[in-house]
From TrEMBL:
Assigned EC number: 2.6.1.42
Pfam hit, one: Aminotran_4
Pathway in which this enzyme or protein is active: Amino-acid biosynthesis; L-leucine biosynthesis; L-leucine from 3-methyl-2-oxobutanoate: step 4/4; Amino-acid biosynthesis; L-valine biosynthesis; L-valine from pyruvate: step 4/4; Amino-acid biosynthesis; L-isoleucine biosynthesis; L-isoleucine from 2-oxobutanoate: step 4/4
UniProt name for this protein: Branched-chain-amino-acid aminotransferase
Keyword Repeat listed: no
Keyword Acetylation: no
Family: Belongs to the class-IV pyridoxal-phosphate-dependent aminotransferase family.
PTM sites of type N6-(pyridoxal phosphate)lysine: K197
One example of a Gene Ontology biological process annotation: isoleucine biosynthetic process
Catalyses which reaction(s): L-valine + 2-oxoglutarate = 3-methyl-2-oxobutanoate + L-glutamate; L-isoleucine + 2-oxoglutarate = (S)-3-methyl-2-oxopentanoate + L-glutamate; L-leucine + 2-oxoglutarate = 4-methyl-2-oxopentanoate + L-glutamate
Amino acid sequence: MSATVVEIVKASYLKTKPNDETLGFGRTFTDHMLVMDYSVATGWTHPRITPYEPITLDPAAVIFHYGQTAFEGMKAYRTDDNRILLFRPEKNFQRLNASCERLSMPAVDEAEVLEYLKQLLIVEQDWVPSSPGTSLYIRPFIIATEAFLGLAASKEYKLVVILSPVGSYYQNGIQPISIKVEEHYTRAARGGTGAAKTAGNYCATFNAQTKAAQEGYSQVLWLDANEKKYVEEVGSSNVFFKINGEVITPELNGSILPGITRLSVIEMLRSWGIPVVERKVSIEEIFRYDDEGLLEEVFGTGTAAVISPIGELEWQGRKLHINDHQIGEVTQKLYDTLTGIQTGKVTDPYNWTVEVK
Ligand code: COI
């Protein structure tokens, strides 16, 4: 693949890099970013690497009024021998295009944008942290930039990729978190945009998330919009339940995000011979399994959240405590194997990693 950016404008000063020990999630950004523009007349043009800087947009830009936008979340990892690895990056660009399709936005050339991203990562390679649990989070996003207040898809867009060195998404690292099942609000409805990675799905969660945080919970668990019965997602993650030796995760139904970590977990479990099923699963069923002593492990999966064990679930005033608030055996094995593959510490039997060079 020979696609190259047309221009690299270097930042006139370079920021001081944070210590790996102080890294949280998503507050520090690197020196450069990737930008590309689209218009109906030209298609995607002028891929370039520029200093990390504010974007100037017309106040009438469609993104500000109708939220026409899509984003991705991916990570670059530093190996012990100083190589930089991406994890299944082609899946992120496929999903970006699926989101664009749902939101009437133009598709990108997946292979080309991956090449541009690699060039950005080469410029920013010193920003990829090396301590355990750290990585360089990659946030590609597309925004609708046409100045037009009529209710129609924009004819102009900007793709931007920014980079942020990160540690753990949750304050307490891989310690099991407490989750409240949300009974009033819903995240996404069937036929809506739930399966797309778009801003509106996420800001729709803030009020429930704030309320749950005030009550001492880290995240909320979302139920389906129709019946408030079936489990959909947890906060920014997909969710898995290990019940009597079998792992269950909600099936993709159009309102659940098709997570790449979710897919990887399913594939790892299958390759280990652990039964895993994707199906509708009700919250009532989960509580019943717990009553019967069959609920063994619960965990969330996501690029930011990696594999995050869940130690407590609250629903209709009832609380269940999972695996004595300890990390389950399968959860730990998934975490170790996934992060081991991502950082090159464990052989990658699935060919998931892609080296940046
Ligand atoms: C990710 O896991 O990459 C996400 O996009 C989650 C983000 C909303 C914090």
